[in-house]
Design brief:
The structure is a homodimer. Chain A has about 675 residues and is an alpha/beta fold. The first copy, chain A, has a ten-stranded mixed sheet with strand order 17-18-16-15-19-11-20-30-14-31, sandwiched between helices. In chain A, helix 5 (about 225-235) packs parallel to helix 17 (about 635-645), helix 12 runs parallel beside helix 14 (about 450-475) and helix 13 (about 440-445) packs antiparallel against helix 14 (about 450-475). Chains A and B meet through helix 4, strand 12, strand 13, strand 14 and strand 21 of A and helix 4, strand 12, strand 13, strand 14 and strand 21 of B.
C-alpha cells in the first residue's frame, strides 16, 4: 500500500513488526483501511472479480484506535492512469452495496497467544460483486477513511490476448515437487555408466525450463490451496484460501472472488475442461480450479461448487468438468462428508455424467459423455503400493462405493490422464480443452518423510508426461497442445549420500548407525538401477529395478518432526511421528525400528514435514513454450497460459451455454466508451 | 563398459554389488581391465588427453583372480566407426610406452573396514601421453587381456566448432549454490508487497535458464574438484580429482590428463584468462582451471602448475593467468605451504606479475600487466564479516604478507571481478578473454550451517553479476561477451518458515524452543527487508536492511552434524560441531547457546554438512545464450562454452607463444589423412 499522509505512515511503521510476521491482523492490510484486491495486483483484461473494502478499528493491543469504532463513512474511488477518479459504484455501474459490520480477534505474537490475550478488531465493510476491467493499463483505487487517512491500491491490467495460440493445454502439477526431487527420481529410475545417463526423464527432454516463485500474498511459505489458486487465476492469496482474497469476516464464503482459468475458458470459448488427481478430488490442487473459499477444508461444498458453481453470489459457471478423476469418495457417498448429506454420485449422474468406481469402468466409459471417476476414499494409494507392495492395498477400508473393504482395480495417474484426454478431445472438439493432472502424493509422502513413495509418484508423473506426449501425437493434436509441468511449492528435500542399510541395522547404538552413511566418494552409484536377484517388478522402463537395495539413498529434509531414520524403504506407508494425548508429537516407535532417533526442528505439535521456500521448476513444450523461460512469479504462469489460450478480451465475451442460467446473471463491468 | 564375452559378464555381475557402492576398487572400472578415459566419454575435436590401460589382478577378497598376477601382455586398439581397428600406438603415431606395475588395496564394505581386512590388487599398466582426436564421430577402444576377456570403451568426438561466436566469456560459479538458496537470498535482499517483489536479483533477469547434473563419474555426490573439472574440461572425474581420470597408481600426478578450457583457449587463440575466488586461490574451483591431479589437497604444486604448467609430462601451457585474485597466501609465502618452500610472490613477480596484498593495491595495479592479488591467508572473510560484523576481522591472523596480524583493506568478489575484467580486456585485446569468478563461501558457510553468511555471499555474487554487466557495457563489450552463472553442486538447504528468536530464547527447554518456528500462515513476511531501528549498514540496494531481525528465517539441511539451533545470526562465523580427541564429533557448546540440540544424520566423524545430489541452475546471457536452456550434464557446459569460443578444430591449432617452450613439446595425435 502506498501511504498518502504522515498519520498512516507512522501507524504503518509502528505496526509492521507486529502485523507482518507469524501472526497478522490481515496479511494484505498493514494499514487500518483495506482494499481487496490489494495494492500491486494484476488482472487479465475482462477477468471478473469482487472488490471489498474494510475499515479496521482495533479495540485493544498495540494498534488500538478510535476506541474500537470503525469509520462507516469511508469512500473509495478508482482511476485509470491519466483519467479522473470515479466512485467505485459509478465506474463499474454497480449499485452501492450495503454496509457490513463484524468483529474479529487475533494474537500479536506467541507471548500473547501463550497468555491468551487476543487483540480485538471491529470492522466496517462494503463489497462490490462481479466487476471486470477491460482496458489494459494502470489503475489506482483510493480508499479514504478516518477523516484523512488513505490507502491506495495500484492495479495493473495486463495486455489483451484475444487470439488462441494453443487449442489445448495439459497442465501437470507435481505437488511439492522440487528440482532436488527430480534429480533424485532420475537417480532411482535411470542408470548411469561412467557419469552418463543411459536414459532420461521425460522432463529432461523439455525444450524450455523456467523457475517460478511460489510464495503467498502475505507469507513466504505457501500451502497448496493458494499456490494452486495463483497458478489458475493470476492472483496470489493466503494460506488455505483459493479463488478469493481473504477478508476478515466470519463467513468463509463471502471473501472477494477472482475468476479462474477454467471459468474464463468456458465463458469465453466454451471449451471442455477436466481435472485428474491422485489425491481426493476435493483436495486443494484439483478443487482450486472452481473453488472460491478461504477455507480449503470445506470439502463438501467445494465439490458442489465444481458441479453447480458458486451458489451464494452471481458468478461465472463452468457447467462442471467434462472429466473428473481421483480419490475422495467421502464427498460423494451421502453422509457427513458430502454437502448437505446428499449423494453426489447421483448429483453428477443427474447432470449427465458416467460414474466409474474402478479402472475397468474408467477405461470403458464413453468418450462423448461427461465422466466422473472416484476410485477410493481419501487419496489414491501411491504408485509404490499399487505396484510393488500391493499387499498393503488389501488392508485399506477405502471402497469408493461406501461398502466395506478395500478399493480394488485402481487406476494410476497415467490411466486417468490418458482417458481424460480422450474425453476432453472428443467433447472439446474445435473448442479445445484444458486438463490439469496432479501427482499429489509427491507432496503427501514428503510430508511423512516417505521419500521412496514420494519419488515413486514423481516417476509416475514423468511416465504420465511421456505417455501424454505419445497420446497427443496419436490423436494428431500434439502440435496444437501446450504442455506445462510444474509444482505448486517445495519441500526441503535432498539426497546427500548413500546408506549401507545392512551395516546400519547391524550397529547397536544411534551414533554407530550413522556410520552407515557414505558421503562424497563413498556415495557410490545408484543401486536402484541394478536388477534385484530373483525379483522382477514388471513396472517397465523408467522405474527402478530394485526399490530396496542394500545401499539406499541417504536423504532428508531440513524440516522434521521427531522421527527414527534407517534410510531404508518401509514396507508400509510411513508414519514418522506419533501424536500424544496432549497433541505433543514424539517418535513413532513402530517406524524404522532398526534406525536411529533424529529429533525434530519443527514445533512439537507438527507430526510431519512442512513446505519450503524454494522456487520450483517449470517445463514447457508446444505453442507459446518460448514464453516460459527464465524466472518469474507463479501468477505469471496463469497469464502465460491465459494469453496462449486467448482469454484476454476488451469487452465482455461470454459464449451462449444453453441450460446454464448462471451466466445470465447481473455483471457489473467497466466498459470503455 | 560393454562386456564382450560371457566370462566378463559373469564377473561383472558378481562384482557390481561390491565395487559400485560406498567403496570401489576403481570407480570407472567394474571389470578387471580398465580403459581411461572409460566408456561413454566425450571429447572436443582436438582436445588433448592421455590414455591409460590397467589390468587388475585381485589377490584376495570377493574378486580374487589369477593368483593376483596381472596380464602383462594385454593389447589395445582403437577404431573410428566403420573403420578398421589399429593399435593405439599406430593410430596416434605414439611410441609403445613402458609397462608399469604397482599394488593397491581397498575395502569392499564397512564390515571389511571395521575388521581391517583390505582387498589387495596387483596391476599392470601402460599410458599413452598427449594424444587428440580431430574427426567428429564415434570411436571404440578395445582392451584385450587374460586370454579372451575384453573391455570396450565407446568415445564420442563432438562436432567441430571453429568459429568464435563470443569474444569473451565471464563464467561465475556460486560454489554449492542451489535454486533453494537463490530463493532464500532473494527473500533476504528484496522486499515484497502483497506477493510482488519490488526489486529482483540480477540472476532473475537472465533470459535463459537451464539445469545441469553435477554427479561425479563414479559417485552420485560430487565434491568441488571434479565438478569444476567437468565444467572446465567436458570430462567428469572422481571426488578430489581435477583435470585427470583417476587411476589406481600410487603417484597422484601420473593420472591420465585432459585439456581444460583455459589451456585450449590459450593454445588455440592466445586469449587472456583469469580467475577470481573468495576462497584460497589453490582451492578446487579456481585451481581446476590448470590443475591436473587426483589429490586436490596438493595445494603448493597446483599453484606452480597454474604458473608454470605441468612439469612431469609434456603438456599444454597457458603462460599463467593474466589476473589471479583471491585468498590463500599460504601457498605464496615461502615455507611449508608453498611448493618446494619457494616464495611464490617472487615466482610470479619474476614472470612479470604485479603483486597486490590489499584492495588499494589491487585497484592501482596496471591494467596492461599480468596481476596477482592475494589478500589474506586461507579464505577471504565473508561478505557479512567484511560489511556487518567487521570487528571479527581484527581477530584474524591472516595477513597475506606473512607478517603477524590481520589482513586489512580487503576486496570483495565485486572488486576483484571488475578489476580482472579491466586487465583481461586490456591484455586480451582482439583475442578476447575468459574469466572465472567464484563465490566460494556460499559452499563453505553452508558446510558450517551458517546460513546467513552463505546467503550474504550469494547476494554478493548477485551484486557482482549486476556490476559485471554494467562494467562490460561501459567497456563496450557486453554484446560480445557470454555471461554464464552456475554452481558446481548443491547442499540440501531450504527455508521452511520463520522463527521468533525472542520467543525461542525465552523458552527453557528444547521442545518449547521449537514452538518459536512459524510455518505456512505463520511464516509471515521477510523482516530482513524492514529497516532496523537506529542502524544503517550502508551496504546499498540489493542487500538486507536488517541481518538479525526478531523473526528470522527457519532453515536447515537434511545432512547435519550434531549441533544446536536457534535460527538466529551468530556474531562470529559458525562452528556447529566440536571434534573430540578420538575424532568423534559432538555439539559445539559455544555455538548458539540459547538454542535446542539437533542430533545429526551424518557419520559422527563429519563435523559439517555435506554436498547434495540436486541438479543446479545455470543462467546465461549473451552470444550462444540460446544453447543453455533445458536440462543437461555438467560436461555439456564445457562443450557449450567451448563451441561458443570456437575451440573445436579439425587439426592441431596452436598459436605461436614466444617464450613458452612447453608448447613445442612432442604431441601425438591422430590426424585424418
Amino acid at each position: 500500500m502506498v501511504k498518502a499522509n504522515s498519520v498512516a505512515l507512522c501507524l504503518a511503521a509502528s505496526l509492521s513488526a507486529a502485523s507482518a510476521q507469524t501472526f497478522q491482523r490481515l496479511g494484505t492490510c498493514p494499514d487500518l483501511g483495506c482494499v481487496l484486491p490489494p495494492d500491486q495486483q494484476d488482472f487479465l483484461p475482462g477477468q471478473e472479480f469482487d472488490i471489498r473494502f474494510e475499515i479496521h478499528a482495533p479495540k485493544n493491543g498495540s494498534e488500538a484506535f478510535n476506541n474500537g469504532v470503525p469509520d462507516e463513512k469511508f469512500t473509495a474511488t478508482i482511476a485509470k492512469d491519466g483519467q479522473k477518479p470515479k466512485s467505485i459504484a459509478e465506474f463499474f455501474k454497480h449499485s452501492e452495496p450495503a454496509l457490513e459490520k463484524w468483529t474479529f480477534s487475533w494474537f500479536e505474537d506467541l507471548f500473547a497467544e501463550d497468555a491468551n490475550k487476543p487483540s480485538v478488531v471491529n470492522v466496517a465493510s462494503k463489497a462490490f460483486r462481479r466487476v471486470a476491467l477491460y482496458e489494459p493499463g494502470e489503475y489506482t483505487v483510493t480508499l479514504k477513511y478516518y477523516d484523512g487517512q488513505t490507502t491506495k491500491a495500484h492495479w495493473t491490467v495486463r495486455p489483451l490476448a484475444t487470439k488462441k495460440k494453443a487449442k489445448n493445454v495439459v497442465f501437470f502439477i507435481g505437488d511439492g515437487m522440487t528440482t532436488n526431487m527430480i534429480t533424485a527420481a532420475r537417480l532411482l529410475g535411470h542408470k548411469t555408466v561412467n557419469g552418463r545417463y543411459q536414459s532420461l526423464l521425460a522432463l529432461d527432454e523439455f525444450p524450455v525450463l523456467g523457475h517460478q516463485m511460489s510464495h503467498s500474498i502475505d507469507t513466504f511459505i505457501t500451502d497448496s490451496a493458494n499456490s494452486a489458486s495463483a497458478l489458475y487465476s493470476g492472483h496470489k492469496s493466503s494460506v488455505n484460501a483459493m479463488g478469493v482474497y481473504v477478508d476478515s469476516s466470519p463467513d468463509t464464503h463471502d471473501d472477494p472472488k477472482v475468476e479462474t482459468i477454467v471459468e474464463l475458458l468456458y465463458r469465453v470459448w466454451g471449451s471442455a475442461w477436466g481435472a485428474v488427481s491422485t489425491a481426493f478430488i476435493a483436495d486443494a490442487t484439483p478443487i482450486a480450479l472452481t473453488g472460491h473459499t478461504r477455507r480449503r477444508s470445506e470439502y463438501g461444498v467445494l465439490i458442489d461448487q465444481a458441479l453447480h458453481g458458486v451458489s451464494n453470489y452471481s458468478w461465472t459457471r463452468t457447467a462442471g468438468p467434462d472429466a473428473y478423476f481421483g480419490g475422495g469418495a467421502e464427498q460423494f457417498i451421502p453422509g457427513s462428508g458430502s454437502y448437505q448429506g446428499k449423494d453426489y454420485y447421483a448429483e453428477f449422474a443427474n447432470e449427465g455424467y458416467s460414474v466409474s468406481w474402478n479402472k475397468t469402468a474408467l477405461l470403458a466409459a464413453p468418450n462423448d459423455q461427461k465422466a466422473l471417476g472416484i476410485f477410493c476414499r481419501s487419496n489414491l494409494p501411491v504408485w509404490l503400493d499399487r505396484n510393488i507392495y500391493t499387499d498393503n492395498l488389501a488392508t485399506l477400508e477405502n471402497n469408493p462405493s461406501g461398502a466395506k473393504g478395500p478399493a480394488t482395480d485402481l487406476p494410476g495417474q497415467k490411466d486417468m490422464t490418458l482417458k481424460a484426454i480422450e474425453i476432453l478431445n472428443k467433447r472439446g472438439g474445435d473448442k479445445g480443452f484444458f486438463l490439469m493432472s496432479e501427482a499429489a502424493s509427491i507432496d503427501k509422502q514428503m510430508h511423512t518423510l516417505d521419500y521412496e513413495r514420494a519419488l515413486g509418484d514423481l516417476l509416475e508423473l514423468d511416465d504420465t508426461v511421456r505417455a501424454t506426449i505419445k497420446k497427443l501425437e496419436d490423436l494428431g493434436i500434439l502440435e496444437e497442445t501446450l504442455i506445462v509441468v510444474t509444482a505448486d511449492h517445495g519441500h526441503g528435500f535432498d539426497v546427500f549420500g548413500s546408506a549401507d542399510t545392512k551395516y546400519l541395522r547391524a550397529q547397536e547404538d544411534d551414533r554407530s548407525k550413522r556410520s552407515a552413511v557414505g558421503v562424497y566418494e563413498r556415495s557410490g552409484l545408484s543401486q536402484y538401477t541394478q536388477p534385484k536377484e530373483g525379483v522382477q517388478y514388471g513396472t517397465g522402463a523408467n522405474f527402478p529395478l530394485n526399490w530396496d537395495p542394500r545401499y539406499a539413498i541417504a536423504a532428508g529434509l531440513g524440516a522434521n518432526p521427531d522421527h527414527r531414520e534407517d534410510y531404508g524403504l518401509g514396507h508400509k506407508p510411513r508414519v514418522p511421528a506419533a501424536v500424544g494425548a496432549n497433541g505433543e508429537v514424539y517418535v513413532e516407535n513402530t517406524d524404522r525400528p532398526g534406525g536411529f532417533v533424529v529429533n525434530g526442528t519443527l514445533p512439537t505439535d507438527e507430526a510431519q514435514g512442512v513446505h519450503s521456500l524454494t522456487d520450483v521448476p517449470i517445463f514447457a513444450r508446444g505453442p507459446c513454450q518460448e514464453t516460459f523461460g527464465g524466472t518469474y512469479s507463479n501468477i505469471d504462469v496463469f497469464y502465460k497460459i491465459a494469453s496462449c489460450l486467448g482469454l484476454g478480451h476488451p469487452h465482455n465475451k461470454t459464449v451462449e451455454h444453453p441450460g446454464h442460467p448462471g451466466d445470465g446473471h447481473a455483471r457489473y463491468s467497466y466498459l470503455p466508451t
